């Protein structure tokens, strides 16, 4: 389902809502609800920077991967702007993580939300294709070394990082048995390598 609102295309995926309902129903810890709020805060950081830099928003999409904001077609921000845009979501999560424990009377709820924001902010900083960290690293390398050397170095670093991550998580799976965390990381690195191969 998609529609336009104030010139922004809004796309809602049926599978996002199915996944969200299943996750919220199955989770007894309450962390999945906090995770959705942290995602909203992350995208809010991107949105705040877009507004501050006057970058036009093209689409807001709720997909199985979460809430995704994208620029309007034909908008090409400079590398410095692109770097700050890619870091703004992680910055919002990490700023919230630092400030939440300081709230008077926040207690355990504030600490839990702080931990979720820390995890999401740091995860998105990983240089894995598809995450903010990969694009931010590419922007930084192009700023430092120019387009040709920067993109070549970025591709080499992405492949090396994904292969090393697959090797490390694969070793954990082989030596300690099938566990959720190493399996998830193995799949994330595999998906990153596959996406990098498509580009």
Structure description:
With 199 residues, the protein is of the alpha+beta class. It is globular, with a radius of gyration of 18 Å. It folds into two domains: 1-125, no CATH class; 127-199. A hairpin with a 2-residue loop joins strand 3 (57-63) and strand 4 (66-71). It starts with a strand and ends with a helix. The protein is built from seven helices and four strands, in the order E-E-H-H-E-E-H-H-H-H-H. It has helices at 14-26, 31-52, 79-99, 107-125, 132-145, 147-176, 180-198, and strands spanning 2-5, 8-12, 57-63, 66-71. The protein has a four-stranded mixed beta sheet. Helix content is 69%, strand content 11%.
Short description:
Helices cover 69% and strands 11% of the residues. It is of the alpha+beta class.
Topology:
Layout (H helix, E strand, L loop, with lengths): L1 E4 L2 E5 L1 H13 L4 H22 L4 E7 L2 E6 L7 H21 L7 H19 L6 H14 L1 H30 L3 H19 L1
Parallel strand pairs: 2-3
Antiparallel strand pairs: 1-2, 3-4
Helix pairs in contact: 2-3, 2-4, 3-4, 3-5, 5-6, 6-7
How much strand content do the residues show? Answer: 5-15%
Helix-strand string: EEHHEEHHHHH
Oligomer: single chain
The largest β sheet comes out as: 4 strands, mixed
The number of domains is 2
> What would you call the structural class?
alpha+beta
* Order of the strands making up the biggest sheet: 1-2-3-4
Q: What is the overall silhouette?
A: globular
Give keywords.
single chain; 199 residues; alpha+beta; 2 domains; four-stranded mixed sheet; 7 helices; 4 strands; 11% strand; globular
